Amino acid sequence: MCELLVGNLESGDRLEALIFSAIYLKWINTGQIPCFEDGGHPRPNRHAEISRLIFRELERIYCMKDTSLQDVLAIRKIHPCLPSFKAEFTASVPLTRIRDVAHWGDIPHDLKHTIQNKLHRNAGPEDLVATEAMLARITRNPEEYSEAFVEQFKIIHHELKDFSMLGNLTEQIESIKESFDDRSLSALILFLECKEGQ
What CA–CA distances, in Å, run from 182 to 108, 129, 178? Predict the structure, then answer.
């Protein structure tokens, strides 16, 4: 997809490339197309780096004088579907907590095989569903698993949600507020206060 966007954004096929990319990412993001490993061994940071590259290219196009309203609409559909590229996910070994926890002795045996091996290489939205199911299972009977494991798994689930950009709006805004100027920051504070008051 990166090649489709970066390679076609300068040509007359820009709108078509943006629309196809928006549709593809929406299907990936909603689990309509599952993420599969291709036999390689890339880490999730590869996806974060590609996401950053796409984001930068989209922002460059967004600011061009010849960008149409249709281009802008397609770009706005793509942005929320991109994986997070926060520093914690672009590190050389992101999402490592799952790897560490998977080696504990008092955990579900299928954790390593259903979640850890895949997350270690190729995290996708379907893994969020798998971690939600696992989290429900391990919190159903609190005495069955150690408290430390349950707490770590809650953090794993939150990290994956953050990586998939599926956190709530407040979490997403909080994660970028340091980049706001004073005017934008005051508008953000007002927005959050209004949101909290509802």
Answer: 48, 38, 10
CA distance 153 to 57: 35
pTM of the predicted model as reported, rounded to 2 decimal places? 0.51
Separation of alpha carbons 152 and 103, rounded Å: 13
Characterize 136-161 residue by residue with b for buried, 16 or more Cβ atoms within 10 angstroms of its Cβ, and e for exposed: eebeeeeeebeeebeebbeebbebbb
Determine the residue type at 162. Answer: D
Is the pLDDT score of 162 beyond 90? no
Q: What number of other Cβ atoms are within 10 A of residue 131's Cβ?
A: 23
What tokens appear for 6 in the block?
């970066």
* Eight-class DSSP state of 83: P
Q: What is the pLDDT of residue 71?
A: 92
Residue 183 corresponds to which tokens in the numbers above?
């005017």
pLDDT 10s digits, 55-114:
888 888 888 888 899 999 999 999 888 887 776 666 655 466 666 776 666 666 666 666
Q: What is the pLDDT of residue 94?
A: 47
Here the tokens at position 77 are 């559909």
Report the alpha-carbon distance of residue 103 to residue 63 in Å, rounded: 48
Q: What DSSP string describes 98-155?
A: HHHHTTSSSS-THHIIIIIHHHHH---HHHHHHHHHHHHHHHHSGGGS-HHHHHHHHH
